[in-house]
Amino acid sequence: MAIDSARDEIARTVLIVDDEANLRSSLAEFLSLDGYQSEVAASGAEALDLLERRVFDAVVLDLRMPGMDGLETLDRILSSGPTVPVIMMSAHGEISDAVSAMKRGAVDYLVKPFDPAELSLRLGKAIADARVVRRAEAGARRADRPWVGEDPAMRAIETLVARVAPTATTVLITGESGTGKEVFAREIHRLSPRADGPFVAVNVAALPESLLESELFGYEKGAFTGAVARRAGLFELASGGTLFLDEVGEMSPATQVKLLRVLQERTVTRVGGERAIPVDARIVAATNRDLEADVKTGRFREDLYFRLNVIRLRVPPLRERPGDIAPLAGAFLARFAREMGKDVRGIEPAALRALEAHPFPGNVRELENAVERAVILCDGDALAARDFWPESGSKATAVGDEPVTVREAERRAIVAALARNGGHRERTALELGISRRTLLTKMREYGL
Length: 448
Description:
By secondary structure, the chain is α/β, with parallel strands linked by helices. It folds into 3 domains: 3-141, Response regulator (Rossmann fold), CATH 3.40.50; 152-315, 3-Layer(aba) Sandwich (Rossmann fold), CATH 3.40.50; 341-445, no CATH class. The protein has helices spanning 3-8, 21-33, 44-53, 70-79, 95-103, 116-141, 152-164, 181-190, 209-217, 234-237, 253-265, 291-297, 302-308, 325-340, 349-357, 363-377, 385-388, 406-420, 425-432, 436-445, and strands spanning 12-17, 36-41, 58-62, 86-90, 108-111, 171-174, 199-203, 218-219, 231-232, 242-246, 267-269, 276-278, 282-287, 311-314, 346-347, 382-383, 398-399, 402-403. The strands form 6 sheets. A 5-stranded parallel beta sheet has the order 2-1-3-4-5, sandwiched between helices. The protein has a 5-stranded parallel beta sheet with strand order 7-10-13-6-14. The longest helix is centred in the N-terminal third of the chain and has 26 residues, at 116-141.
Protein backbone atom coordinates (compact mmCIF):
# COMPACT_ATOMS: atom_id res chain seq x y z
CA MET A 1 0.00 0.00 0.00
CA ALA A 2 1.25 3.48 -0.80
CA ILE A 3 2.49 5.52 2.15
CA ASP A 4 -0.13 8.24 1.66
CA SER A 5 -2.89 5.64 1.44
CA ALA A 6 -1.71 4.07 4.67
CA ARG A 7 -1.58 7.44 6.42
CA ASP A 8 -5.15 8.16 5.32
CA GLU A 9 -6.25 5.25 7.52
CA ILE A 10 -4.68 6.54 10.75
CA ALA A 11 -5.20 9.69 12.81
CA ARG A 12 -3.91 12.90 11.27
CA THR A 13 -0.94 14.37 13.10
CA VAL A 14 -0.53 18.10 13.76
CA LEU A 15 2.30 20.13 15.28
CA ILE A 16 1.11 23.23 17.19
CA VAL A 17 3.80 25.90 17.61
CA ASP A 18 3.08 28.85 19.94
CA ASP A 19 4.82 30.45 22.89
CA GLU A 20 1.53 30.71 24.83
CA ALA A 21 1.17 27.52 26.88
CA ASN A 22 -2.59 27.86 27.42
CA LEU A 23 -3.27 28.26 23.72
CA ARG A 24 -1.07 25.27 22.85
CA SER A 25 -2.79 22.98 25.32
CA SER A 26 -6.35 24.10 24.54
CA LEU A 27 -5.88 23.67 20.78
CA ALA A 28 -4.29 20.26 21.27
CA GLU A 29 -7.15 19.15 23.51
CA PHE A 30 -9.81 20.33 21.05
CA LEU A 31 -8.10 18.75 18.04
CA SER A 32 -7.74 15.44 19.87
CA LEU A 33 -11.53 15.36 20.29
CA ASP A 34 -11.82 16.00 16.53
CA GLY A 35 -9.67 13.01 15.55
CA TYR A 36 -6.21 14.59 15.40
CA GLN A 37 -3.02 13.57 17.19
CA SER A 38 -1.25 16.72 18.34
CA GLU A 39 2.27 17.57 19.45
CA VAL A 40 3.17 21.00 20.81
CA ALA A 41 6.26 23.19 20.62
CA ALA A 42 6.96 26.45 22.48
CA SER A 43 9.43 27.85 19.93
CA GLY A 44 10.56 27.63 16.34
CA ALA A 45 13.73 25.79 17.33
CA GLU A 46 11.74 23.18 19.27
CA ALA A 47 9.39 22.77 16.30
CA LEU A 48 12.25 22.17 13.86
CA ASP A 49 13.72 19.59 16.22
CA LEU A 50 10.39 17.71 16.33
CA LEU A 51 10.03 17.89 12.54
CA GLU A 52 13.44 16.25 12.15
CA ARG A 53 12.41 13.32 14.34
CA ARG A 54 8.89 12.56 13.09
CA VAL A 55 6.46 13.21 10.25
CA PHE A 56 3.47 15.52 10.66
CA ASP A 57 0.51 16.01 8.38
CA ALA A 58 0.33 19.74 9.13
CA VAL A 59 1.84 22.53 11.25
CA VAL A 60 -0.06 25.32 13.02
CA LEU A 61 2.47 28.12 13.53
CA ASP A 62 2.27 31.38 15.46
CA LEU A 63 3.60 34.43 13.65
CA ARG A 64 5.03 36.29 16.65
CA MET A 65 7.35 34.33 18.95
CA PRO A 66 10.50 35.29 20.86
CA GLY A 67 13.77 34.25 19.28
CA MET A 68 13.07 32.61 15.94
CA ASP A 69 9.80 34.14 14.72
CA GLY A 70 7.12 32.45 12.66
CA LEU A 71 8.36 33.67 9.27
CA GLU A 72 11.89 32.35 9.80
CA THR A 73 10.49 29.09 11.17
CA LEU A 74 8.22 28.82 8.12
CA ASP A 75 11.13 29.32 5.73
CA ARG A 76 13.17 26.63 7.46
CA ILE A 77 10.25 24.18 7.55
CA LEU A 78 9.59 24.55 3.83
CA SER A 79 13.26 24.27 2.88
CA SER A 80 14.14 21.32 5.09
CA GLY A 81 12.48 18.43 3.26
CA PRO A 82 9.11 17.08 2.07
CA THR A 83 6.54 19.85 2.02
CA VAL A 84 4.18 19.94 5.00
CA PRO A 85 1.22 22.37 4.97
CA VAL A 86 1.62 25.24 7.42
CA ILE A 87 -1.28 27.33 8.78
CA MET A 88 -0.22 30.61 10.36
CA MET A 89 -1.82 32.17 13.47
CA SER A 90 -1.66 35.93 13.75
CA ALA A 91 -3.11 38.81 15.76
CA HIS A 92 -5.35 41.44 14.17
CA GLY A 93 -2.47 43.84 13.55
CA GLU A 94 -0.36 41.17 11.82
CA ILE A 95 -2.63 40.36 8.88
CA SER A 96 -0.26 41.88 6.33
CA ASP A 97 2.53 39.70 7.73
CA ALA A 98 0.26 36.66 7.53
CA VAL A 99 -0.45 37.41 3.87
CA SER A 100 3.29 37.71 3.34
CA ALA A 101 3.70 34.31 4.98
CA MET A 102 1.24 32.79 2.51
CA LYS A 103 3.25 34.23 -0.37
CA ARG A 104 6.29 32.47 1.12
CA GLY A 105 4.48 29.12 1.23
CA ALA A 106 1.98 28.99 4.11
CA VAL A 107 -1.34 27.50 2.96
CA ASP A 108 -3.66 29.55 5.19
CA TYR A 109 -3.85 31.85 8.21
CA LEU A 110 -6.22 32.46 11.12
CA VAL A 111 -6.62 35.70 13.08
CA LYS A 112 -6.63 35.35 16.87
CA PRO A 113 -8.95 34.75 18.59
CA PHE A 114 -10.58 32.12 16.41
CA ASP A 115 -13.01 29.23 16.77
CA PRO A 116 -11.06 25.95 17.11
CA ALA A 117 -13.69 24.33 14.88
CA GLU A 118 -12.57 26.69 12.11
CA LEU A 119 -8.97 25.55 12.63
CA SER A 120 -10.08 21.90 12.42
CA LEU A 121 -11.94 22.62 9.19
CA ARG A 122 -8.98 24.34 7.59
CA LEU A 123 -6.59 21.66 8.77
CA GLY A 124 -8.72 19.00 7.11
CA LYS A 125 -8.68 20.90 3.83
CA ALA A 126 -4.93 21.62 4.02
CA ILE A 127 -4.07 17.97 4.75
CA ALA A 128 -6.33 16.71 1.95
CA ASP A 129 -4.78 19.19 -0.50
CA ALA A 130 -1.26 18.21 0.55
CA ARG A 131 -1.96 14.52 0.00
CA VAL A 132 -3.30 15.22 -3.48
CA VAL A 133 -0.20 17.27 -4.27
CA ARG A 134 2.06 14.49 -2.99
CA ARG A 135 0.32 12.00 -5.27
CA ALA A 136 0.89 14.34 -8.21
CA GLU A 137 4.56 14.75 -7.25
CA ALA A 138 4.92 10.98 -6.95
CA GLY A 139 3.40 10.63 -10.42
CA ALA A 140 5.92 13.13 -11.78
CA ARG A 141 8.78 11.09 -10.31
CA ARG A 142 7.38 7.98 -12.02
CA ALA A 143 6.71 9.69 -15.34
CA ASP A 144 8.84 7.14 -17.21
CA ARG A 145 6.85 4.16 -15.93
CA PRO A 146 4.61 2.44 -18.50
CA TRP A 147 1.64 3.61 -16.44
CA VAL A 148 1.03 5.52 -13.25
CA GLY A 149 -1.64 4.57 -10.74
CA GLU A 150 -2.18 3.63 -7.12
CA ASP A 151 -5.74 2.34 -7.34
CA PRO A 152 -6.09 -1.30 -6.20
CA ALA A 153 -7.62 -2.20 -9.58
CA MET A 154 -4.50 -0.91 -11.35
CA ARG A 155 -2.26 -2.83 -8.98
CA ALA A 156 -4.25 -5.99 -9.77
CA ILE A 157 -3.73 -5.34 -13.49
CA GLU A 158 -0.01 -4.84 -12.92
CA THR A 159 0.15 -8.22 -11.16
CA LEU A 160 -1.80 -9.93 -13.93
CA VAL A 161 0.42 -8.42 -16.63
CA ALA A 162 3.51 -9.72 -14.85
CA ARG A 163 2.00 -13.22 -14.66
CA VAL A 164 0.74 -13.48 -18.22
CA ALA A 165 3.62 -11.75 -20.01
CA PRO A 166 6.09 -14.70 -19.89
CA THR A 167 3.54 -17.01 -21.55
CA ALA A 168 2.39 -17.21 -25.18
CA THR A 169 -1.27 -16.92 -24.15
CA THR A 170 -3.63 -14.72 -26.14
CA VAL A 171 -4.82 -11.72 -24.12
CA LEU A 172 -7.98 -9.66 -24.57
CA ILE A 173 -7.80 -6.14 -23.12
CA THR A 174 -11.15 -4.43 -22.60
CA GLY A 175 -12.02 -0.92 -21.55
CA GLU A 176 -13.41 2.38 -22.74
CA SER A 177 -11.63 4.49 -25.35
CA GLY A 178 -8.77 6.46 -23.88
CA THR A 179 -8.04 4.18 -20.91
CA GLY A 180 -4.61 3.19 -22.27
CA LYS A 181 -5.19 -0.34 -23.55
CA GLU A 182 -2.22 -0.18 -25.92
CA VAL A 183 0.05 0.81 -23.01
CA PHE A 184 -0.71 -2.51 -21.34
CA ALA A 185 -0.32 -4.41 -24.59
CA ARG A 186 3.15 -2.95 -25.03
CA GLU A 187 4.04 -3.79 -21.44
CA ILE A 188 2.98 -7.41 -21.95
CA HIS A 189 5.30 -7.51 -24.95
CA ARG A 190 8.15 -5.78 -23.08
CA LEU A 191 8.03 -8.30 -20.22
CA SER A 192 7.72 -11.33 -22.50
CA PRO A 193 10.43 -13.58 -23.98
CA ARG A 194 9.49 -11.91 -27.29
CA ALA A 195 10.66 -8.47 -26.13
CA ASP A 196 13.50 -8.45 -28.68
CA GLY A 197 11.02 -9.20 -31.46
CA PRO A 198 8.71 -6.70 -33.18
CA PHE A 199 5.62 -5.14 -31.64
CA VAL A 200 3.19 -4.54 -34.51
CA ALA A 201 -0.03 -2.61 -33.86
CA VAL A 202 -3.02 -2.20 -36.15
CA ASN A 203 -6.27 -0.36 -35.48
CA VAL A 204 -8.92 -2.57 -37.04
CA ALA A 205 -11.54 0.19 -36.98
CA ALA A 206 -9.31 2.56 -38.96
CA LEU A 207 -9.09 0.35 -42.07
CA PRO A 208 -11.80 -0.67 -44.57
CA GLU A 209 -12.41 -4.40 -44.78
CA SER A 210 -10.69 -4.90 -48.15
CA LEU A 211 -7.55 -3.09 -47.00
CA LEU A 212 -7.56 -4.74 -43.56
CA GLU A 213 -7.41 -8.22 -45.06
CA SER A 214 -4.41 -7.40 -47.25
CA GLU A 215 -2.70 -5.60 -44.34
CA LEU A 216 -3.14 -8.53 -41.97
CA PHE A 217 -2.45 -11.42 -44.32
CA GLY A 218 -0.38 -9.82 -47.09
CA TYR A 219 -0.86 -10.33 -50.83
CA GLU A 220 0.80 -11.77 -53.89
CA LYS A 221 1.81 -9.80 -56.95
CA GLY A 222 -1.18 -9.29 -59.23
CA ALA A 223 -3.73 -10.29 -56.56
CA PHE A 224 -5.66 -7.08 -57.30
CA THR A 225 -5.25 -3.83 -59.17
CA GLY A 226 -2.26 -2.03 -57.76
CA ALA A 227 -0.61 -5.14 -56.33
CA VAL A 228 2.58 -4.67 -58.34
CA ALA A 229 4.74 -6.70 -55.95
CA ARG A 230 4.42 -9.35 -53.26
CA ARG A 231 3.89 -7.96 -49.77
CA ALA A 232 4.09 -9.67 -46.40
CA GLY A 233 1.20 -9.06 -44.01
CA LEU A 234 1.31 -7.91 -40.42
CA PHE A 235 1.11 -11.49 -39.11
CA GLU A 236 4.35 -12.30 -40.94
CA LEU A 237 5.99 -9.04 -39.90
CA ALA A 238 5.12 -9.75 -36.26
CA SER A 239 6.63 -13.27 -36.27
CA GLY A 240 8.78 -13.72 -33.19
CA GLY A 241 7.01 -10.80 -31.56
CA THR A 242 3.53 -9.52 -30.74
CA LEU A 243 0.65 -8.46 -32.98
CA PHE A 244 -1.70 -5.99 -31.28
CA LEU A 245 -5.19 -5.93 -32.79
CA ASP A 246 -6.81 -2.77 -31.48
CA GLU A 247 -10.61 -2.42 -31.67
CA VAL A 248 -10.93 -6.05 -32.74
CA GLY A 249 -14.68 -5.84 -32.10
CA GLU A 250 -15.07 -3.75 -35.27
CA MET A 251 -13.82 -6.59 -37.49
CA SER A 252 -16.26 -7.77 -40.17
CA PRO A 253 -17.68 -11.33 -40.01
CA ALA A 254 -15.66 -12.38 -43.08
CA THR A 255 -12.39 -11.19 -41.58
CA GLN A 256 -13.31 -12.79 -38.26
CA VAL A 257 -13.44 -16.19 -40.01
CA LYS A 258 -9.96 -15.68 -41.47
CA LEU A 259 -8.55 -14.50 -38.15
CA LEU A 260 -9.99 -17.56 -36.41
CA ARG A 261 -8.27 -19.82 -38.95
CA VAL A 262 -4.93 -18.11 -38.31
CA LEU A 263 -5.30 -18.57 -34.55
CA GLN A 264 -6.21 -22.24 -34.98
CA GLU A 265 -3.65 -23.23 -37.61
CA ARG A 266 -0.88 -20.67 -36.95
CA THR A 267 -0.55 -20.08 -40.69
CA VAL A 268 -1.67 -17.35 -43.09
CA THR A 269 -2.45 -17.40 -46.78
CA ARG A 270 -1.76 -14.18 -48.61
CA VAL A 271 -4.50 -12.60 -50.70
CA GLY A 272 -4.19 -14.10 -54.17
CA GLY A 273 -1.92 -16.87 -52.89
CA GLU A 274 -2.33 -20.58 -52.24
CA ARG A 275 0.56 -21.45 -49.96
CA ALA A 276 0.06 -21.54 -46.20
CA ILE A 277 2.83 -19.59 -44.47
CA PRO A 278 3.68 -20.45 -40.85
CA VAL A 279 3.55 -17.49 -38.46
CA ASP A 280 4.69 -17.15 -34.86
CA ALA A 281 3.07 -13.98 -33.54
CA ARG A 282 1.54 -13.66 -30.13
CA ILE A 283 -1.89 -12.05 -30.32
CA VAL A 284 -2.99 -9.32 -27.92
CA ALA A 285 -6.39 -7.88 -28.83
CA ALA A 286 -8.28 -4.91 -27.43
CA THR A 287 -11.81 -3.59 -27.68
CA ASN A 288 -14.11 -0.98 -26.18
CA ARG A 289 -17.16 -3.05 -27.12
CA ASP A 290 -19.08 -5.58 -25.05
CA LEU A 291 -18.07 -8.66 -27.02
CA GLU A 292 -20.24 -10.97 -24.92
CA ALA A 293 -23.28 -8.95 -25.96
CA ASP A 294 -22.06 -8.95 -29.57
CA VAL A 295 -21.76 -12.74 -29.45
CA LYS A 296 -25.38 -13.03 -28.27
CA THR A 297 -26.60 -10.84 -31.12
CA GLY A 298 -24.46 -12.68 -33.68
CA ARG A 299 -22.30 -9.65 -34.44
CA PHE A 300 -19.14 -11.38 -33.21
CA ARG A 301 -18.26 -15.05 -33.62
CA GLU A 302 -18.45 -17.03 -30.40
CA ASP A 303 -15.57 -19.34 -31.34
CA LEU A 304 -13.31 -16.38 -32.11
CA TYR A 305 -14.32 -14.72 -28.86
CA PHE A 306 -13.23 -17.76 -26.86
CA ARG A 307 -9.96 -17.92 -28.80
CA LEU A 308 -9.18 -14.30 -27.95
CA ASN A 309 -10.53 -14.28 -24.41
CA VAL A 310 -8.07 -16.74 -22.85
CA ILE A 311 -6.90 -14.05 -20.40
CA ARG A 312 -9.01 -10.91 -20.01
CA LEU A 313 -7.56 -7.69 -18.69
CA ARG A 314 -10.13 -4.96 -17.98
CA VAL A 315 -8.78 -1.43 -17.72
CA PRO A 316 -11.20 0.61 -15.55
CA PRO A 317 -12.25 4.10 -16.68
CA LEU A 318 -10.69 7.03 -14.90
CA ARG A 319 -13.95 7.94 -13.13
CA GLU A 320 -13.71 4.62 -11.24
CA ARG A 321 -10.26 5.50 -9.93
CA PRO A 322 -10.19 9.25 -9.20
CA GLY A 323 -7.26 8.73 -6.85
CA ASP A 324 -5.10 8.09 -9.92
CA ILE A 325 -5.88 11.48 -11.47
CA ALA A 326 -3.32 13.41 -9.42
CA PRO A 327 -0.35 11.06 -10.06
CA LEU A 328 -1.27 10.80 -13.74
CA ALA A 329 -1.52 14.58 -14.04
CA GLY A 330 1.87 14.89 -12.33
CA ALA A 331 3.42 12.41 -14.74
CA PHE A 332 2.00 14.20 -17.78
CA LEU A 333 3.14 17.56 -16.40
CA ALA A 334 6.71 16.29 -15.97
CA ARG A 335 6.77 14.98 -19.55
CA PHE A 336 5.23 18.00 -21.25
CA ALA A 337 7.24 20.52 -19.24
CA ARG A 338 10.41 18.67 -20.28
CA GLU A 339 9.37 18.43 -23.93
CA MET A 340 8.36 22.11 -24.12
CA GLY A 341 11.29 23.35 -22.08
CA LYS A 342 9.02 25.12 -19.57
CA ASP A 343 9.85 25.56 -15.89
CA VAL A 344 6.47 24.37 -14.61
CA ARG A 345 7.02 22.34 -11.45
CA GLY A 346 3.62 21.51 -10.01
CA ILE A 347 -0.15 21.85 -9.99
CA GLU A 348 -2.00 24.09 -7.56
CA PRO A 349 -4.18 22.19 -5.04
CA ALA A 350 -7.37 23.92 -6.23
CA ALA A 351 -6.67 22.78 -9.79
CA LEU A 352 -5.98 19.22 -8.62
CA ARG A 353 -9.26 19.15 -6.69
CA ALA A 354 -11.06 20.36 -9.79
CA LEU A 355 -9.43 17.63 -11.88
CA GLU A 356 -10.42 14.97 -9.35
CA ALA A 357 -14.04 16.16 -9.47
CA HIS A 358 -14.18 15.83 -13.27
CA PRO A 359 -15.64 12.53 -14.61
CA PHE A 360 -13.26 12.46 -17.63
CA PRO A 361 -15.45 10.75 -20.24
CA GLY A 362 -12.37 10.68 -22.47
CA ASN A 363 -10.42 8.91 -19.71
CA VAL A 364 -6.62 9.08 -19.53
CA ARG A 365 -6.35 10.49 -23.05
CA GLU A 366 -8.59 13.43 -22.09
CA LEU A 367 -6.54 14.09 -18.96
CA GLU A 368 -3.32 13.96 -20.97
CA ASN A 369 -4.68 16.48 -23.47
CA ALA A 370 -5.90 18.74 -20.65
CA VAL A 371 -2.46 18.78 -18.99
CA GLU A 372 -0.70 19.42 -22.31
CA ARG A 373 -3.00 22.39 -22.99
CA ALA A 374 -2.49 23.70 -19.45
CA VAL A 375 1.31 23.54 -19.74
CA ILE A 376 1.12 25.52 -22.98
CA LEU A 377 -1.08 28.21 -21.41
CA CYS A 378 0.69 28.38 -18.03
CA ASP A 379 2.71 31.54 -17.40
CA GLY A 380 3.83 30.66 -13.85
CA ASP A 381 5.66 27.84 -12.13
CA ALA A 382 2.51 25.83 -11.27
CA LEU A 383 -0.60 24.92 -13.25
CA ALA A 384 -3.72 26.77 -12.04
CA ALA A 385 -7.39 26.05 -12.70
CA ARG A 386 -7.47 28.87 -15.26
CA ASP A 387 -4.84 27.02 -17.29
CA PHE A 388 -7.11 23.99 -17.57
CA TRP A 389 -10.34 25.92 -18.18
CA PRO A 390 -9.33 29.26 -19.74
CA GLU A 391 -12.73 29.85 -21.37
CA SER A 392 -14.69 29.84 -18.11
CA GLY A 393 -12.05 30.98 -15.66
CA SER A 394 -13.78 28.79 -13.08
CA LYS A 395 -14.25 25.09 -12.53
CA ALA A 396 -17.71 25.81 -11.17
CA THR A 397 -19.03 26.81 -14.59
CA ALA A 398 -17.22 24.44 -16.89
CA VAL A 399 -15.41 21.12 -16.77
CA GLY A 400 -12.92 20.46 -19.55
CA ASP A 401 -14.73 21.31 -22.76
CA GLU A 402 -18.20 20.40 -21.45
CA PRO A 403 -20.80 22.74 -19.91
CA VAL A 404 -21.93 21.80 -16.42
CA THR A 405 -25.43 22.30 -15.03
CA VAL A 406 -25.98 24.02 -11.70
CA ARG A 407 -27.28 20.73 -10.30
CA GLU A 408 -24.15 18.86 -11.41
CA ALA A 409 -21.89 21.62 -10.07
CA GLU A 410 -23.66 21.35 -6.70
CA ARG A 411 -23.28 17.56 -6.63
CA ARG A 412 -19.57 17.80 -7.42
CA ALA A 413 -19.05 20.46 -4.78
CA ILE A 414 -20.61 18.19 -2.17
CA VAL A 415 -18.56 15.18 -3.31
CA ALA A 416 -15.34 17.20 -3.19
CA ALA A 417 -16.13 18.65 0.24
CA LEU A 418 -16.96 15.22 1.66
CA ALA A 419 -13.65 13.92 0.33
CA ARG A 420 -11.68 16.82 1.82
CA ASN A 421 -13.29 16.25 5.20
CA GLY A 422 -12.93 12.48 5.23
CA GLY A 423 -16.70 11.98 5.02
CA HIS A 424 -17.28 13.97 8.23
CA ARG A 425 -20.73 15.47 7.69
CA GLU A 426 -20.59 18.21 10.32
CA ARG A 427 -17.34 19.61 8.90
CA THR A 428 -18.60 19.23 5.34
CA ALA A 429 -21.78 21.16 6.12
CA LEU A 430 -19.74 23.86 7.84
CA GLU A 431 -17.41 24.20 4.86
CA LEU A 432 -20.33 24.42 2.43
CA GLY A 433 -22.21 26.91 4.59
CA ILE A 434 -25.33 24.76 4.96
CA SER A 435 -26.98 22.90 7.82
CA ARG A 436 -26.30 19.25 8.47
CA ARG A 437 -29.94 18.44 7.68
CA THR A 438 -29.67 20.19 4.29
CA LEU A 439 -26.46 18.30 3.57
CA LEU A 440 -28.12 14.95 4.35
CA THR A 441 -31.08 15.86 2.14
CA LYS A 442 -28.73 16.74 -0.73
CA MET A 443 -26.73 13.55 -0.24
CA ARG A 444 -29.87 11.46 -0.50
CA GLU A 445 -31.02 13.47 -3.54
CA TYR A 446 -27.74 12.81 -5.36
CA GLY A 447 -27.39 9.22 -4.25
CA LEU A 448 -24.34 9.91 -2.08
